[in-house]
Amino acid sequence: MAHLRGAGLRLPLLLLACVLLLSALPVQAHALTTERFTAKSNQDGADGIMGATNTRITWQGQADEGESIRQVTLTLPQGSALPADGTTVTVLDGLKRLSVPNTVTEEGESITVSFDEPTPAGTMVMLELNNARFPAEGGTYQVEGTYTTADGAEAAIPDGGKQISVTGTTPQEELAAWLNEQPWVQAWNSNKFLHLFFDPAIVVTALPAVFWGWLLALGLVAISFPLAIPLGLCWSFLRMAKNRFARAVGSIYINVVRGTPLFLQIYIAFFGLPLLGIQMDNFVLGIIVLVMNSSAYLAEIFRAGIQSINKGQFEAARSLGMNGAQTMIFVIIPQTFRRVIPTMTSEFILMYKDTSLLAAVGVMEIMMYSKTITAATGNVTPYIVAAFFYLIVTIPLTKAINHMEARLVGGRPKRRRQNALPEKTPASLSGTVGAVAAEGSEADVAQAMRMSEGFSTGPQVIADDSLGTKMRGKDV
Fold first, then answer.
1. Which of 120, 186, 225, 345 is deepest in the core (most CB within 10 A)?
2. Continuous H helices in 96-199
3. Measuring CA to CA, how many Å separate 383 from each of 210, 354, 357, 388, 392?
């Protein structure tokens, strides 16, 4: 029994000795634990953090009880910027702010805070790095750096599981950030009107996005307008048909389409067809709506052009043995197109501007891109950029229309000849045609030929039409 009682006492004593031995061993304590590692959003209209753009990084480290901090060094990846003059250092003892003199130095992508005296034990150190920048390529970053305790021991800063996700930036965004730092841009934006309607930094960032919308708008028109031309011709023929039923169909279609807004037609197509179970790509459906709308207007343009052709053209073509279809295809339609080119160009401009209405149904053209950027920035500048893309197409085409109209009204200007033709006798006119051809225009040649034939063959009747046919009375 005594033997068992002695063995039972030795076991607790052995355990107590082990506990005392372990407690006597030195324990390595983590003097600084990362409590916070965040960055302020620098992305317009969003909560993201962009690289190569000024932001404010906040880091907080909590020291263990009984440990004091003499120096803290934070390091960001290559390509970052940590300006020393934008760093604020705060030491907190609970909620109490302590005044601890310190020195901040910058070296590459690292920034070091050295305290003149070690911080009180168990305090929290907070660094606010203003005007800091992450690398332009973006990525996910954790805390990297070292700290030094009061006794001179140096250790790595534990990240504490804290990290910051950074979005990569484009060259346009980097240029916009650079512009925002320029004094003249800041002075420009100090005017509220200029800032809201023409912010240089937003112009730079909006241009690439609106440019893709511009290409899509041009694609819509480049596909829709050529398809609308033959369809418009068909509707104009139905409108002028002798058959009452065909004429009624053409008239109803043209009047209904021309009498309702394109915006309403877009809504009917984009929201009505899905109710019937017809699903179609927005781009393709937008082309169909534009073609159907523009063809009604082109039909009236072609009808007016055809009816403006002199009836003598039909009679002259029939006298040459052409039937009705040949007359229309080879004689009337070519002349009609020459006459309606200015009006067709105006319709092209209207179609190009009407593509903006497709933004209401989600087609990503100029206005849709501009609307998206405006909603994100709260600035009207993207709409001004969109106006620029519309004008670079409409203004040259408007100038071309004015030039064509002037040509049609005044005719082709004649070139001035260096030497006026001397008065010719009937006998010598036929010999001067070659000289006129060398010095004058085609019209001068034709006039000289008619005069020569008139004097040499006597009175004659000349029928001059757009076919270029000249028939003398004796041949008729």
1. 225
2. 171-180, 183-189, 192-197
3. 9, 16, 14, 9, 15
pLDDT at 449 over 80: no
Residue 425 above 60 pLDDT? Answer: no
- In angstroms, rounded to a whole number, what is the distance separating the alpha carbons of residues 355 and 370? 14
User: Could you give the CA distance from residue 124 to residue 92 in angstroms, rounded to a whole number?
Assistant: 5
Q: Which residues have a Cβ under 8 Å from the Cβ of 437 and sit 6 or more positions away?
A: 445
Higher pLDDT, 279 or 461: 279
Residues 6+ apart with CB under 8 A from 470: 450, 462, 463, 464
How many CB atoms are located within 10 Å of the residue 21 CB? 9
Burial status of residue 473 (CB atoms within 10 A of its CB: 0-12, 13-18, 19 or more): exposed
Span 201-410: which CATH code? 1.10.3720.10
Three-class SS of residue 349? helix
Tell me the CATH architecture of domain 32-169.
Answer: Sandwich (2.60)
Cα distance between residue 181 and residue 201, in whole Å: 10
**What token pair was written down for 318?**
């029939």
Pairing assessment for the beta strands 163-166 and 102-107 based on DSSP bridges? unpaired
Q: Quick one: DSSP state of residue 415?
A: P
Asked if residues 116 and 80 have their Cβ atoms less than 8 Å apart, the reply is no
Pairwise CA distance, residues 124 & 36, whole Å: 11
Angstrom CA distances, 201 to 176, 343, 354, 381, 388, stand at: 4, 40, 29, 10, 16
Question: Token digits for 378?
Answer: 């709260």
* Predicted TM-score (pTM) of this structure: 0.63
User: Residue 55 and residue 20: Cα distance in Å, rounded?
Assistant: 52
Length of the chain measured in residues: 476
Q: What is the pLDDT of residue 16?
A: 58
